[in-house]
From TrEMBL:
<dbReference type="Pfam" id="PF03453">
    <property type="entry name" value="MoeA_N"/>
</dbReference>
<dbReference type="InterPro" id="IPR036425">
    <property type="entry name" value="MoaB/Mog-like_dom_sf"/>
</dbReference>
<dbReference type="GO" id="GO:0061599">
    <property type="term" value="F:molybdopterin molybdotransferase activity"/>
</dbReference>
<feature type="domain" description="MoaB/Mog">
    <location>
        <begin position="178"/>
        <end position="320"/>
    </location>
</feature>
<keyword id="KW-0500">Molybdenum</keyword>
<dbReference type="InterPro" id="IPR005111">
    <property type="entry name" value="MoeA_C_domain_IV"/>
</dbReference>
<protein>
    <recommendedName>
        <fullName>Molybdopterin molybdenumtransferase</fullName>
        <ecNumber>2.10.1.1</ecNumber>
    </recommendedName>
</protein>
<comment type="pathway">
    <text>Cofactor biosynthesis; molybdopterin biosynthesis.</text>
</comment>
<keyword id="KW-0808">Transferase</keyword>
<comment type="function">
    <text>Catalyzes the insertion of molybdate into adenylated molybdopterin with the concomitant release of AMP.</text>
</comment>
<dbReference type="GO" id="GO:0005829">
    <property type="term" value="C:cytosol"/>
</dbReference>
<dbReference type="InterPro" id="IPR005110">
    <property type="entry name" value="MoeA_linker/N"/>
</dbReference>
<keyword id="KW-0501">Molybdenum cofactor biosynthesis</keyword>
<dbReference type="GO" id="GO:0006777">
    <property type="term" value="P:Mo-molybdopterin cofactor biosynthetic process"/>
</dbReference>
<keyword id="KW-0460">Magnesium</keyword>
<dbReference type="InterPro" id="IPR001453">
    <property type="entry name" value="MoaB/Mog_dom"/>
</dbReference>
<dbReference type="InterPro" id="IPR036688">
    <property type="entry name" value="MoeA_C_domain_IV_sf"/>
</dbReference>
Length: 406
């Protein structure tokens, strides 16, 4: 009989099986107002300079730098949105932040440094050319790349697009996910518990994570604890989704039917992994009636395994379908451990909270790392990666995966 270490697949092999031949989904045009969190399907070139004209960086007085140190008549007033008159040498213009710099002026003096008496502004000397002026094209030059394909449209990127006058963007369609919950003992919150029953913690947790990763959950469904019912639910889910995610039913018990159903309907690419939590994990695919290949990820039923599995597997799978390179891997930080632990043949992903100080980054592990203790995930902001056959002591350096999206 094979030892556990020989029978289990490493996570690198799991990732290769998960992402093999996964391509980006088709794109669609949507209003910019609806594009928050979406992923660009094509690069966007700048259509105009930003700023589109030289303008004042503050409230003050515009002049030619050669007239610094003089007392000059105030020839005009320029507010943001005005079209200024040309400025003659030997005069200055009262100007406000964002106001277009008059032709003939090349610098601005902040108002606190100017004394005004009877329409005459007395200006300090040694004012350099370009002082307090935001030059045309300082941020963006027309024709240059504005945003790359694969960019996730967060707040700043949306502002960047709006600054070009763009109101429609071409983005990847959201991956459609069917989320299946197995187990006759699982019931929805709000229903009184009968003996032996537990509430479905995985469903709301995974819906939230899937949407955070950029997917659309198109179905949530309970799967009965029988072989035929499991096959029916998997087959029907594959007709409406790009990804089918199940929780529970992937172990070796008599009531665990997901693995067998997946083998009957499609292909099981990989099953048992050398990781903790989450050893029983089914990765495979089903070809539906439309001849589309649908990915299937069978997560363990323990809530911590579902939480960790979502970050390790669902996030990069969704990222590949969105062609978002930033989601290929979780950001990696190195932190100093404040705990001790040891591992056997499986790689351990410990729930930790990272703290940041002048002394560096420190990883604080939750005391109970059992796969059924969901409270270990509530305050976690990272997963500490403890390799197989390792001994970790306080003060050791550990790789930690930062839990962030994308």
């Amino acid at each position: 009989m094979a030892s556990e270490s020989n029978a289990l697949a490493p996570i690198k092999q799991a990732m290769q099986a998960l992402l093999h031949e996964v391509g980006p989904l088709i794109s669609e045009n949507i209003p910019l107002a609806d594009a928050a969190g979406r992923v660009l399907a094509e690069p966007v070139a700048a259509q105009m300079d930003v700023p589109p004209f030289d303008n004042s960086a503050m409230d003050g007085y515009a002049l030619h730098h050669a007239d610094a140190g003089s007392s000059l008549p105030i020839a005009s007033r320029v507010a943001a949105g005005d079209t200024p008159l040309a400025l003659e040498r030997g005069t200055c213009a009262r100007i406000f932040t964002g106001g277009a710099l008059p032709r003939g002026a090349d610098c601005v003096v902040m108002q606190e440094k100017v004394t005004v008496t009877d329409g005459i502004a007395t200006l300090p000397g040694d004012i350099p050319q370009g002082d307090n002026v935001r030059r045309r094209g300082r941020d963006v030059t027309a024709g240059n790349l504005l945003l790359e394909a694969g960019t996730r449209l967060e707040a700043a990127a949306l502002g960047h697009l709006a600054g070009q006058g763009i109101n429609v963007v071409n983005v990847r369609k959201k991956p459609r996910v069917a989320l299946l919950s197995t187990g006759d003992e699982i019931i929805d919150p709000g229903i009184p518990l009968a003996p032996g029953q537990i509430y479905n913690t995985n469903r709301p947790m995974l819906v939230s994570l899937l949407e955070r990763f950029g997917a659309e959950v198109v179905q949530t469904r309970h799967v009965p604890d029988d072989a035929q019912g499991t096959r029916t639910c998997l087959r029907e889910a594959a007709e409406i989704a790009d990804i089918v995610v199940s929780t529970g039913g992937v172990s070796v018990g008599e009531e665990d039917h997901v693995k067998a159903a997946l083998e009957a309907l499609g292909k099981l690419n990989l099953w048992r992994l050398a990781i903790r939590p989450g050893k029983p994990l089914a990765l495979g695919r089903i070809t539906n009636s439309h001849n589309q290949v649908v990915r299937v990820v069978g997560l363990p039923g323990n809530p911590v395994s579902g939480f960790v599995g979502a970050w390790l597997f669902l996030r990069p799978l969704i990222g590949a379908m969105l062609s978002c390179n930033a989601m290929a891997e979780l950001p990696s930080l190195w932190a100093t451990s404040d705990f001790s632990t040891s591992t056997g043949p499986r790689q351990h992903y410990m729930r930790v909270r990272l703290s940041f100080s002048r002394d560096g980054i420190h990883a604080h592990a939750f005391a109970d790392q059992n796969s059924g203790v969901l409270s270990s995930c509530v305050g976690a902001n990272a997963l500490a990666v403890v390799p197989p056959e390792s001994q970790i002591a306080p003060g050791d350096s550990l790789e930690c995966l930062w839990l962030t999206s994308p």
